[in-house]
Design brief:
- This protein has helices at 2-25, 27-30, 32-41, 43-52, 64-83, 86-110, 126-157, 165-192, 197-223, 239-255, 267-283, 298-305, 307-324, 348-365, 390-406, and strands at residues 55-57, 60-62, 288-295, 330-335, 338-344, 376-382, 412-414, 417-419.
- The protein has a six-stranded mixed beta sheet with strand order 4-5-3-6-7-8.
- With 423 residues, it is an alpha+beta fold.
- The longest helix has 32 residues, at 126-157.
- The chain contains 15 helices and eight strands.
- The protein has two domains: 2-113 and 123-250, no CATH class; 264-419, Reverse transcriptase/Diguanylate cyclase domain (Alpha-Beta Plaits).
- A hairpin with a 2-residue loop joins β4 and β5 (338-344).
Length: 423
């Protein structure tokens, strides 16, 4: 029987995801209201099933209402955020919360009626309404926290897993559904006497459901793709509004301040971000290093092969530099054939080794149209003896770049002198 229940559990999850994602995907044709309504009308059933309906699965006693439908709802809220923004997400959350408040209020008023029993043994019970009302109210309050938490965690993970959307989706689901299981089960246990054994079975079922929804989400992302829609401006009035503003600001920022030729961040962006990066590294008690590099004899490339070929060489340099830098480093195009790398949490010795890798990589992988290797000269400066701010570090690194050129180019100059061609 447990195996049959497991099969039904999977069918329920796949059916729920398929229906809800279909409504979400075609929201611009049929209206977003259909998706939001479908998301909301199932809330009573989810809460009712979580309170009274449990089945045996191989990994424990489970309520499909909580494990399949509530888990699915939270993952749908995250998908809605990914397709729209936080301002849209708040609509179903607030709607559910207000609706459940109304349910509790009406249940309180109804207890003053004297109901008529129309058929034997079918007397109405206002106790059920009051009990379910408060349980739904508690569930919606948790859902509010879940929705905020899952969005904030998704954005935070974006700093480290920027292009791994599916992995972020999975991690967010696992973390927030664990929180949800603890919070909601406490109410079930306290008010309805649901045994503690059901906690672990329910938690495992939610984790299993998150994995199912993540796999289906990955299929959707790969085969159907993401439609990007820009929503109109909305006033900032609560945390969802703040999230919306930050999301749009970060999106705008990521698409501005880019050098058109190389795709790297430009000098204006450097002047905005580099000082903050150095200050933040110092605040955390770390070193910070600035590396400035220049393509050797680049004017000869333009003169001999033309500016279009010179542009291709610059693109190749930028692409190769990006493969060497770490996720925490940031590369900017300073101007012409000069580039600046800001490396937080990097001492001078580490920076010299990094600069040498950059020098070797360019020399061994980038060539002019006639096959000659392209070389670069680099100057390195680190917080401490070289200064405590970005401007001071940039000035010191620039002086060492000039020294590298005087030393014959194709070398790295740091505080201790020259590290020439791997020496």
């Amino acid at each position: 029987m447990a195996d049959v229940n497991l099969l039904l559990f999977i069918i329920e999850a796949v059916s729920y995801f398929t229906l809800m994602v279909t409504l979400l995907h075609f929201r611009h044709r049929i209206g977003l209201g259909m998706f939001l309504t479908a998301l909301g009308v199932m809330h009573f059933m989810e809460t009712y099933l979580a309170a009274v309906f449990y089945v045996q699965l191989p990994f424990g006693i489970v309520s499909p209402g909580s494990s399949v439908f509530f888990t699915g709802k939270l993952m749908m809220i995250l998908m809605l955020y990914l397709r729209e923004d936080a301002a849209i997400v708040r609509q179903p959350i607030y709607g559910l919360f207000i609706g459940n408040l109304l349910t509790v209020g009406i249940a309180w008023i109804l207890q003053w009626h004297v109901p008529v029993e129309l058929s034997s043994g079918r007397a109405p019970s206002d106790a059920f309404l009051k009990e379910m009302g408060w349980l739904m109210l508690w569930g919606t309050a948790i859902l509010y926290l879940d929705a905020i938490g899952i969005i904030l965690l998704y954005e935070r993970l974006g700093r480290y897993l920027r292009h791994k959307v599916v992995l972020r989706f999975l991690i967010c689901g696992l973390v927030l559904l664990t929180f949800d299981q603890i919070a909601f089960f406490s109410a079930l246990h306290y008010f309805l006497g649901v045994p503690a054994a059901a906690f672990w079975g329910g938690w495992k079922a939610k984790m299993f459901a998150v994995c199912i929804y993540t796999a289906l989400f990955a299929v959707y992302e790969i085969w159907i793709g993401r439609a990007v829609v820009t929503s109109g401006a909305r006033p900032i009035g609560d945390i969802f509004g703040d999230l919306t503003f930050r999301e749009r600001y970060n999106d705008l920022l990521s698409r501005t301040g880019r050098d058109i030729l190389t795709g790297l961040y430009d000098r204006t962006r450097m002047e905005m971000e580099a000082p903050l990066m150095v200050r933040e590294s110092l605040r955390q008690g770390h070193f910070a290093t600035v590396i400035i590099l220049d393509a050797d004899h680049f004017k000869n490339v333009n003169d001999e092969f033309g500016h279009l070929q010179g542009d291709e060489v610059l693109r190749a340099i930028a692409a190769r530099l990006g493969t060497i830098l770490r996720a925490t480093d940031r590369m900017f195009r300073f101007g012409g054939e000069e580039f600046v790398a800001v490396c937080p949490a990097t001492d001078h010795g580490e920076a010299l080794r990094l600069a040498e890798r950059l020098r070797w990589t360019i020399e061994s992988s980038v060539a002019t149209p006639d096959g000659k290797p392209v070389t670069i000269s680099l100057g390195v400066a680190t917080v401490g003896d070289d200064g405590d701010g970005f401007a001071a570090l940039l000035s010191a690194a620039d002086q060492r770049l000039y020294q590298a050129k005087k030393n014959g180019r194709n070398c790295v100059v740091g505080r201790a002198g020259v590290r020439d061609r791997g020496e």
